[in-house]
Amino acid sequence: MTSSSRGREVNVLGPLEVRGGGSNVRLRPAQRRLLSVLLLDPESVLDTDALLDRMWGDDPPATARTALHVHLSALRRVVPGLIGTTATGYHLEPDGYRFDRSTFEALGTRAAAQAQSADWDAVLRTSARAMALWRGDPFDDLRADNFAAPEINRLTELWSNLGDLHARALVATRRHEEAVLRLRALVAHEPLREPRWEQLMLALYRSGRPAEALRTYQDARRVLAEELGVEPGPALRLMAERILVQDASLGEPERDLPEYRLPPTVSSFIGREIDLQRITATLADRRVVTVVGGPGFGKTRLAVEAGRAVVEQERIAAWFVPLAEARNREEVVGAIATTVGLRRHTATLEEAADRVADLPALLILDNCEHLLEPCAEFIGRVMSTGRARLRILATSRRPLGLPDEAVLRIEPLPAPAHDMGGETPSVLASAAVRLFVDRARAADGTFRITPESAPLVAGLCRRAEGIPLALELAARWVPALSVPDIEEMLGADVLPPAAARGGPSSRRSLRAAMQWSVALLPPGDRQLFIATSVFNGSFALEDALAVCTTRGDRRRLAVAIARLVDASLLVADRRRDGSVRYRALIPIREFGRERLGSGADVEALRERFVTHYLRKARGTDQDDFRQVVDLAAMDDDLDNLHEAFELGVRARRTDEVALSAMALDVYFHNRYLAWEQRSRLAGLLPEVGDAGVRAAILRSMASLSMVVGDVDESLRIFTDAIAAFRELDDPLGLARCLVGLSGLHAHRGEWTAGEEAAREARRLLTDTENLSALAIVAYYVGENLAGGGQVEAGIAELSEAALRYEHAGDLSRASHALSTLADIAVCGEDEAVARRSAGDAMAFARQSGSTYRLVRALAACAEVEGRWGDPANAARLLLELHESLGPHDSEHVSEFLFPAAFLLRRWEAWELLLDLLRTVEDGVARLGEGYPEPWRAMARRWRSEAPARFAATTPPGPLPIDRVEEAVVRLLAPPSR
User: Fold this and answer.
1) Predicted confidence band at 146 (pLDDT cuts at 50, 70, 90)?
2) Same-domain check for residues 820 and 923
3) Which of 45, 101, 583, 974 is 20 to 30 A removed from 950 (C-alpha atoms)?
4) Per-residue pLDDT tens for 393-449?
5) Residue 392 sits in the same domain as residue 467
């Protein structure tokens, strides 16, 4: 067991959850599925074929074996020491881990033994502990798979039996009100279990409700007749008879029970389990708790569930006071007075407060946001008596502002992340999806989520931003509409048919809830909220200052933004560096956009938005060679930039849009979005008027075409761009174009032509003091020199390039230059240069935040470690590299397979090494890439060193990249400790 595995939890009683260090460990969808498969049968050893079958079924992808080993390697890093390997396959080594399933089963066995000895107090404690572990369907990620059904059904049956034991213990210990609540839920979940009806009737009788107990018998009789066509069994009939004659053996009905006035609920409670635990835990320590959240977030339902939980745990009175319809102080007092048993029209606030202050009870004040002052006054009076035992749970869209108030903010339910793709188990793990599916099945019992519909449902839940009310209303359209059609209805001011036919409570709409929140704002804040809807993503305070106001009063704007956050109309996201960004959830933002309207003020707002983000894209530095981009900042602004580009084109500011978009070429390259950028620029090209801008677009498109592997198209566009810059007599633009052409020649292995293009660019830049320009020229001169076999001269130029990039502050390209330098030094057997360059490349890559540069640096470090360092570390680097690779074949050849060759040679894995070399050479030729002479020399040397028996048995011709990759990954995977 490693030290990093201590204190880790693996939980399968609900969506898969791995916890370590007090927080959840993030798993990718495929990793979640793989770990769930291994956990399903922890005592067994599964071979590769069995894992492939359970991961992908009858239609595995061509790269399934490689992908499986990559996922296994990644899992070993996040759950160290858990996955073991034997000669026949993979299994679990659970030492150092806690499993909720094991704890659950042990507690279930203990509770059953305690029931046998009639120790009902112990049963109550034990069963409560076990049931608290249950977060939903066990192995939720595998619920659609037939092979998982037996284990899921077994655990579900254990949970059901524990629920029965818990309810029997509640009845036996005379906690009848709690027993009634628990048994009603159990009966609703499985109405054909007659012992549950029997226990419910007994609990009702002992609670002093014999008539209700007999009505329950009639309900059971009707359900059994409708579902099975049978009459109740002897035990249930006997219970009805004993209640009818008030059989003394049933025990005396209770008297003076605590009041219980909470509204009934008819649907299941989904997705807020952690919030529920937070509220009940806080209520145990604090007298006043306010649940704060935006419109439609489900505050009322959460408060009702919290009230039930407190009643079950403490057997105290609970009252629910709805204030949504109250309009003033008098109506607040009247609503409270009516609920607690005072005369509505004569009670005063002080009288109502004094009536309940010293009661050991829970009072829920629902929807306080429009009546903050009278609600705060009432609570303050209760707390000021000095004898207050009453606890108060309030719901509001903003805090009440009381000194002793504990504020718990709730967020929308988590929707599926975009990187989950459309994998059904991963989509179903989302609380938002589970709520939608539950409500959809209630509306249409035939509704099921399928592999085909899972991505659509995930998109709908993202579009609804996980807002419970939006999801529930969307589900009501299920009987009549497809999922894409339902998604369109999310923004419409119409109610589903089922809601339109219902009473006032069912006619709630998200739009009405948002209208309510906005109406409570003062006029200035209302205008600011509507103005912020121009943003298409998150924004900083400085962005709002530039776009939403013309007065430039930062302090006043900050206060107003804080009030919008307080009113739950904006979400504030605090970053690791302490900065804060703001965003409106999609439905709320669209509500604000509908109120933007038209006119000169709105056009001016949009113009400020476009100008601000076009300027932000281009930056203040107009030096075209520098291109230093803060990737994280651009990530934050990407949605707003897309919106600004679109609005700018509509406003006929195409030239500005093109220049701003091109300033982000480096960003799109480093984020593997070069295809998107090339397509955008191709669309802008016909609309651009300025010849210089057209030439710049051609140069940019040529570079992007090279990045995405379209080298013939790249050469054609570079030729056109160079001609355009010569005609314009633009030496700076021409130099940039020649630099790009030099890179293309290097890519194609045309080393002499590449060196000539780079040296011509250097002549055009003779008088410049631009470090970035001199660096990039030195880089391409060096790459072409080294690629053509002039290693010493190439190393000198690459060293100069890296130093100039570093001095210019361009760590991203400094990292790239150092990675190339390390490659050449490794092949030239210069360990000192190679090791120093690879280490610096890695440090700069991690600082830059670029995945592309990180891949290059990992390759360089893996080569160094594979050639001279720790083989285990080289293997680890290669596996991390493989997991980070983009979709391009060229990266898999040059960035993974060739670096792996150094380690294969170290391990003397000759057969695989020779297969790899043939595959690399074929891949380079097939992709039209250059094969640097130092690499060729290294490959020739390895072949000459191979034992004759391997060279003689190696068949001619290359192997598929996938097969070689798979073999390498399997060899790299670390053995289990």
Assistant:
1) confident
2) yes
3) 974
4) 999 998 998 988 999 999 999 888 765 545 566 677 788 998 998 888 888 878 888
5) no
891 or 795, greater pLDDT: 795
Question: Is 395 found in the same domain as 280?
Answer: yes
DSSP-derived 3-state class of residue 854: helix
Query: Which CB contacts under 8 angstroms, 24+ apart, belong to 522-531?
Result: 524/560, 525/560, 525/563, 525/564, 525/567, 528/557, 528/560, 528/561, 528/564, 529/564, 529/569, 529/570, 529/592, 530/592, 530/595, 530/596, 531/596, 531/605
- Report the alpha-carbon distance of residue 518 to residue 813 in Å, rounded: 48
Beta-bridge mates of residue 392: 288, 363
Count of the separate structural domains present in the chain: 5
Instruction: Characterise 828 by phi-psi region: left (phi > 0), alpha (psi -120 to 50), beta (else).
Output: alpha
pLDDT at 952: 66
The whole-number pLDDT of residue 882 equals 81
Distance CA 573, CA 578 (A): 10
Q: What pLDDT is attached to residue 424?
A: 61
User: Cβ–Cβ contacts within 10 Å for residue 94, how many?
Assistant: 17
SS3 at position 601: helix
Q: Compute CA 514 distance to the chain's CA centroid, rounded to the nearest angstrom.
A: 25
Inform me whether the pLDDT recorded for 613 exceeds 90.
yes
State yes or no: pLDDT of 476 exceeds 90. Answer: no
Q: Long-range contacts: 325-332, Cβ < 8 Å, 24+?
A: 326/371, 328/371, 328/374, 329/371, 329/373, 329/374, 329/377, 332/371, 332/374, 332/375, 332/378
- Residue 796 in any domain: the answer is no
CATH classification of the domain holding 960: 1.25.40
Mean pLDDT of the chain: 84
What is the H or E stretch that residue 396 is in?
strand 391-396
Q: How far is CA 611 from CA 108, 357, 554, 608, in A?
A: 65, 58, 19, 5
Same domain, 17 and 162: yes
User: H or E segment at 391?
Assistant: strand 391-396
Going by the DSSP 8-state scheme, the letter that residue 813 receives in this structure is H
In the prediction, which pLDDT does 699 show? Answer: 92
The sheet that has 391-396: what strands, in order across it?
Answer: 260-261, 317-322, 361-366, 391-396, 288-292, 405-409
Cα(304)–Cα(541) distance, integer angstroms: 37
Distance CA 449, CA 470 (A): 19
| Strand-strand pairing, 83-85 and 90-92 | antiparallel
Q: Is residue 750 scored above 90 in pLDDT?
A: yes
Distance CA 612, CA 549 (A): 12
pLDDT at residue number 497:
61
- On whether residue 834 sits in a domain, the answer given is yes
> For tokens 């607690």, what's the residue?
340
SS3 508: coil
pLDDT higher than 90, residue 366: yes
What are the φ/ψ torsions at residue 53 (nearest 5 degrees)? -65, -45
Parent domain of 443: 418-494+506-511
Q: Which residues contact 433 (CB under 8 A, 6 or more apart)?
A: 415, 416, 427, 449, 457, 458, 461
Residue finishing a domain among 463, 483, 511? 511
Rounded distance between C-alpha atoms, residue 4 and residue 17, angstroms: 17
Residue 149: predicted pLDDT = 86
DSSP string, 870-925: -HHHHHHHHHHHHHH--S-HHHIIIIIIHHHHHHHHHHT-HHHHHHHHHHHHHHHH
Any idea what the CATH number is for the domain that residue 591 is in?
A: 1.10.10.10
Residue 971 CA to residue 977 CA, distance in Å, equals: 16
Give the separation between CA 395 and CA 399, rounded to whole angstroms.
9
**Residue 567 covered by a domain:** yes
| Distance from C-alpha of 781 to C-alpha of 755, rounded to nearest angstrom | 5
* Confidence class for position 498, pLDDT limits 50, 70, 90: low
In sequence order, the 6+-apart residues with CB closer than 8 A to the CB of 49 are none
pLDDT band at 507 (very low <50, low <70, confident <90, very high): very low
Residue 940 included in any domain: yes
